Every structure is written in C-alpha cells, then in structure tokens.
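Can anyone check this?
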Amino acid sequence: MSTPSITALPDGGLKSPGAGLITLDPVRTALLRGLDDLLTGLAARLGAPEVLGPPLLSVEGLARLDFFRNFPHLGVSAARFAPAALDGLAAGEAPGDLPLRPTGHLLPSATCYGLLLSLEGRDVGEEGLRLSASGRCFRNETHYDGLRRLWGFHMREVLYLGTKQGAVEHLEQGAGFILEAAARLGMELDRAVADDPFYDKGGARARLMALDPVKHEFSAPDGTAIASVNRHRNFFGERLDIRAGSAGPAYSACVAFGLERWVHAMVLTHGSPERALDRLHDAAL
C-alpha cells in the first residue's frame, strides 16, 4: 500500500468551525508534531520526564494562585447542562437556550498550573524536580488571529522546582535552547521583557518585578511571541507549600513553547508549509 502524500490544503487549512478555532491541514499538523518532538529535546537535555497534566483546573486552586486577580479575562469555564435541561435536549430544543450549571473548574490556560497544583505539599528536595508536559490550553482573548492567537492551542512546557540557583540555571539553559533550536530551523528571534505576572501585583512584589523582570519572550519577525522563559521566584512554593528540602519554599521556573505559533513562524520564515516542513526534517537529522 502506498503512503499518502502530505500536502497543504487551500487557504492554509480546513474550514474554521468558529472564531479562534481551526483544524490544521496535514502538512501543518506534521509541522506541529515534528516541532513538538524537536522542542522536547530541552526536556531530554535537562532530564525532565514526560507527564500528562489534568484536563481541568479547580477555581479554588487557581484562586489561591491569584489567577483571577492577574488574568480575570482569560478563564474559560467548564460547565454541565443542568438536570432541568436534559428533557429539552432530548426533545430537540436548541442547546444554547438551555441552562448550564458551573462545575467549579476551568480549562487550563497554561500547562504548568495543573502540574504545580498536583505537587501541593510535596518536598522536591534540594536537588529539585523537572517535568515536561504538553497540553491543550484555552484563553478567552479579546480577538483571534489565525495561528498567532487562538482560543485553544497546544503548549509545551518544561518546569523546574527546587532552589533559587537551580531556577536561574533552568532558565539560562532554556533560553539557550530556544535560540539554538531557532537557528537550526533557520529562524531569527527577538528577545524582550514581557509583562505577565505569576503572582500578586501589589506593594513590594510589584516594585520588585519592575526592577527584576520575571518573564522574557522570544518573538518572530512579525512580533508573534512563540516561546518564553518564566521565573516564578518562590511564589508557587509558598502558596502550595512545595518545599526544596532545607532550602525552604521551592523556587520554580518554566520554559514554554506555543506550538501553533511555532508553525506560524516557520511558514512565515520559509514561505510555505512544505518548505518549512523540509527545513524541519533537515533540522531533526
């Protein structure tokens, strides 16, 4: 049996089922899968085993992490049809007109939240802990723009918890890997400080962030941020009682990759999905 060819579909993909939603065509799907394989090289280099995070996050847990104070606009709620709606659904009534009941959970907006919440009360030791995970993330944005800004997208993260110095080294290695991977793929990225807090914005913490930024983004020539390095200090360690042995509350840091945005940047750089896929194959050798 012959192997089907991988080709791009007209207009870059299949018909969008709604704003911020897209079905990738075969060539862009191959790009996304191949890029994820390439980017997991950071996890392999750092000895970060692969885990699978939860598909939903409790609003109670997120509230303890100041998620709603910092990102009140991003949350996408998970809801169930109320029991009173079931008869109407069975009778063929329009689902949009029937009542929903909150579940107390949100869809993840970043991969690391589920991993951090699952480590509550743990001692990761002074040697620290690294984990790698990829998952679907969802954000309620003010607007959507092709693969640059989606309602639902894939995010690969490599997370570290441990000592302050370990977190610094994790981000240094992550930043170096991002630039190395981009060079192998023929892309030039700009690095810049980003305003994206992982902890409360009041008082001394806000002043400290202004003097000592916690997030840097790496952007394609059109300004699309495709990767970031994020230093959480010991915020999550304190809030979730995650300890690093005698060092006290764990410091944490993560390196994040937006996979659809990497696909966008590759096509932007190389002019077509097919040429981008060829370059990815060369880089993976």
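Reply from J.R.: I decoded it. The chain has a mean pLDDT of 89.
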